[in-house]
DNA sequence: CCCCTTTTTCCGCTGTGTGGAAATTAGCTT
DNA sequence: AAGCTAATTTCCACACAGCGGAAAAAGGGG
C-alpha cells in the first residue's frame, strides 16, 4: 500500500512539470482534482524544503532542490551511458535514448538529443507500455513467450495510433522477428510520424536495457536499417561490456 | 504546518543522494533515524511512481522520474541563465554560479563549470547561509540594514572557517562596502582556499539574484578585481534585462 | 545445511493529514 | 478611490491513513 500524501505531492510536482515548470494553485487543482486546502498544504511542505519555489505573482514553480536530486540520479545511469548515446547520435544524426524495463513499463533513463532543428522532445523519466515502442519490443523479445504474453495481458495493448500492434499473436510474431534481426523498429506505433530503431544492451547474460534512435519518419526511413542497426549494436555491445564487470566499487 | 510523510520521504531521497545515489534500507535508517517499517513504506510509494529504483541486490537508488523533474526545474532558470554564466566562465576562466535568496538561505540554482582541471565541485541546489558567501553578501546588501540584521540574528552567523565574518557590526560594514563597490568577495569565508567574486542581478527594480565566479584562492587573487567585476556586471545586467520584460507568455 | 543479517510484511492504535468553508489578499473595473 | 471578482491562504473537528514495533521471510556467507 502506498502513502497517500506522498502520491499526491508527486501528482502536484508532476502537474507543475507538465505546465512547463510553473503554475498557479488553481491550475494544479484543475489538473489533479485535489481540494485547494490540500494542495496548498502539500505545496507548503515542498516549499519549506526547497523543492518548489513561489514566484512574486504567487505562482508555484519547481525548485532548485529538484535540480540537485535530478542531477545525482542522472549522474548514476545517465553519465555512464551518455558517451555511448553521443556516439549513436553521431552515427545516426538522431536523438538517442537509453531505456530499461521497470515493472510492466519501459522507462527512458537517459537521452542525448540530436543536433538537428527538428528533433524528439526530452522524454527522460517517461514511462510507456512496451508494445508500442521499439525499445519495448527489444526488451520484451528477451523474455520467454508466455512471460511476454502474461505481461501483455496484464497491461492490455492500448491503441496509440492506427499503426499500433494491438493483437498478442501479431506481437509474438513481431518479437520473433526482432530476435532474428537483432533490432526492433517502431513505425509510428507510439506516435504518428515518429519512427525509431532500437537494439538490445546485454551485460553478458541478460538484456538489461535498450538503446534507440528516433526521429521524423522521413529521415529514419531514408537510412539503411541493417547498416544503422549494425553500427548501433557495436556501441551497445561496448556499453554492455562496461556494465558487466564485477560491479566495481564497495 | 508541514506534512510529516512528505518531509520524511524527502529525507529518504536526500539520504540516497548523499550516499551517491544508492543505498540499502539499513543505511538509510542509520542516516535518517526513521524506523525500518516506515522507510520501507515510503520507499515503496516512491518506487511505484518511478522516483526510486530497486537494483538486483535489493538496494535502492534514485530513479529516472527525478531526472525528469530535475530537468524541467533546471530548464526553467538554468537554461535561461546558462548562456550568461558561460560568458562569465569565458571571462574569468573559473566556475560561474547563479544564486537566489530562498527564505533565510542562499540557494545555488545554476552553474557552468570551469574548463580547468582544478575547479569547484557542482553545488547546484545547495543551500547556504548568506553571511559566509559572496553571493549571500550581494543579496543581503540589497536589503535595508535592520532587515538584514533581523535575518542575521535569526540565522546566527556560524563560523565556517577562521575567515568567516561572525559579527553583525562587521557584516554591516562589509555590506556597505559591497554596495559602494558593486561587487562582493568571499575570501575563504565559507571554505578555506576558495575565493569568490559576486555581482548582483537586477530585474530593473530589485536585486533578484546574484552571479559569481569561484575558484582556488591563488587564481582568483591574481586577477584585477575591479576589472573582473566590471565585466561581470555587464553580463549580469544583460541577464537581468532578460528577466525584466512584461513576463512574456500567458 | 545452518546461522546471521537485512529486508519485508503485518496489524491495532493514535496522531496526522484531510477538506469544506471562512477569511484574506491581489488584481480589475467602474 | 472604492467596490467587485477571482484567486490564495488559513482554520478546525473528525476520521482514517499512516505509524512503528515486532514477527516473518529472504538472502548470503561460512
From TrEMBL, chains A, B:
Q: Which organism is it from?
A: Nonomuraea montanisoli
This chain belongs to the protein called Glycerol operon regulatory protein
Q: Which UniProt keywords apply?
A: DNA-binding, Glycerol metabolism, Transcription, Transcription regulation
InterPro entries in UniProt: GAF-like_dom_sf, HTH_MetabolicPath_Reg, Tscrpt_reg_IclR_C, Tscrpt_reg_IclR_N, WH-like_DNA-bd_sf, WH_DNA-bd_sf
Tell me one GO molecular function of this protein. DNA binding
Q: What does this protein do?
A: May be an activator protein for the gylABX operon.
- Record's keyword annotation contains Ribonucleoprotein: no
Q: Which GO terms describe its biological process?
A: glycerol metabolic process; negative regulation of DNA-templated transcription
Coiled coil feature spans: none
Locate the IclR-ED domain: which residues? Answer: 65-245
What Pfam families does this protein's entry cite?
Answer: HTH_IclR, IclR_C
Protein origin, superkingdom: Bacteria
Q: Where is the HTH iclR-type domain?
A: 3-64
Amino acid at each position: 500500500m502506498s502513502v497517500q500524501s506522498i502520491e499526491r505531492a508527486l501528482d502536484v510536482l508532476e502537474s507543475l512539470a507538465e505546465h512547463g515548470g510553473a503554475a498557479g494553485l488553481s491550475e494544479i487543482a484543475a489538473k489533479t482534482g485535489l481540494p485547494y486546502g490540500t494542495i496548498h498544504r502539500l505545496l507548503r511542505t515542498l516549499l519549506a524544503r526547497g523543492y518548489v519555489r513561489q514566484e512574486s505573482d504567487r505562482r508555484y514553480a519547481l525548485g532548485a532542490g529538484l535540480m540537485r536530486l535530478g542531477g545525482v540520479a542522472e549522474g548514476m545511469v545517465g553519465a555512464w551511458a551518455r558517451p555511448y548515446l553521443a556516439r549513436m547520435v553521431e552515427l545516426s544524426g538522431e536523438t538517442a535514448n537509453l531505456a530499461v524495463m521497470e515493472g510492466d513499463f519501459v522507462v527512458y533513463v537517459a537521452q542525448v538529443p540530436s543536433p538537428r532543428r527538428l528533433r524528439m522532445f526530452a522524454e527522460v523519466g517517461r514511462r510507456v507500455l512496451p508494445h508500442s515502442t521499439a525499445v519495448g519490443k527489444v526488451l520484451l523479445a528477451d523474455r520467454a513467450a508466455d512471460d511476454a504474453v502474461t505481461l501483455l495481458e496484464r497491461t492490455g495493448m492500448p491503441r496509440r495510433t492506427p499503426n499500433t500492434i494491438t493483437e498478442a499473436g501479431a506481437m509474438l510474431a513481431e518479437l520473433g522477428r526482432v530476435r532474428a534481426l537483432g533490432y526492433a523498429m517502431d513505425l509510428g506505433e507510439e506516435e504518428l510520424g515518429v519512427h525509431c530503431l532500437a537494439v538490445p544492451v546485454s551485460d553478458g547474460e541478460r538484456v538489461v536495457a535498450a538503446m534507440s534512435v528516433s526521429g521524423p519518419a522521413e529521415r529514419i526511413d531514408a537510412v539503411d536499417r541493417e547498416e544503422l542497426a549494425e553500427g548501433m549494436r557495436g556501441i551497445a555491445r561496448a556499453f554492455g561490456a562496461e556494465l558487466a564487470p564485477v560491479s566495481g566499487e564497495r
